[in-house]
Known about the structure:
TIM Barrel; 8-stranded parallel β-barrel; 11 helices; binds phosphoenolpyruvate
Amino acid sequence: MRKKIVAGNWKMNKSFEEGLALASEIVNFYKDEVHSDVEAVLIPPFIHLVSVGRLLDHPHVQLGAQNCHQEVSGAYTGEVSAAMLSSAGAQYVILGHSERRQYFGEEEGLLAKKIRTALAAGLKPIYCVGETKEEREDNRHFDVIESQVEGALSVFSAEELKTLVIAYEPVWAIGTGLTASPEQAQEVHAFIRNLLEKRFGASFSQLVPILYGGSVNPTNAAELFSKRDIDGGLVGGASLKSRDFINIIQSFV
Ligand code: PEP
């Protein structure tokens, strides 16, 4: 049985007070209404991590960060290390989000280093992959995803990656209101699982949660989550409203 995860990526949104209010609402809703073992991961901006983390007094509501630096420590002004995140209470870290790839030039070599540093600090990486609109239109999406998966993960052993989570996030679906159809998403998730099986073996591939991300909302989540290889969601916009986020979690049957 793979873990089911719904992670909320707040991106660069919410003031301190708004972030605390959102986190408390989610925890309260979760306690009152969620009777499954779906894991919720709240992923606020760095500066809110400690304060949000203190509110998360439910074993299935966890804390994550949106990025970390690839080096362990040192003279990197303005950066945040994996060990700092871990000591601030984060269990997860998103790496390779398409916004980091697009606006900060992050690519597989760097992301492999970040994954290594995150693992060494005890963080569970949520490694994001996904094709652009042009790449899908040119029917290159499988090649792109293969090179993103292989490029960052092939330097690791299965043992090293035992806490890995992958998020398939087609870039054309992020923040656009366009969602991959459940069939399109399932096809890519099965493809990713097959890549993991070829490189790391069947038992490993069956254990890695693969989340779908791209305009997930309370209306489309149930159908996406009903697919065999979709183990949850990485949610942006809809994670900023507690009711929507909880309804997405409740979409698991
Ligand atoms: C994301 O940022 O990872 C994301 C999927 O955003 P949205 O849900 O808003 O498309």
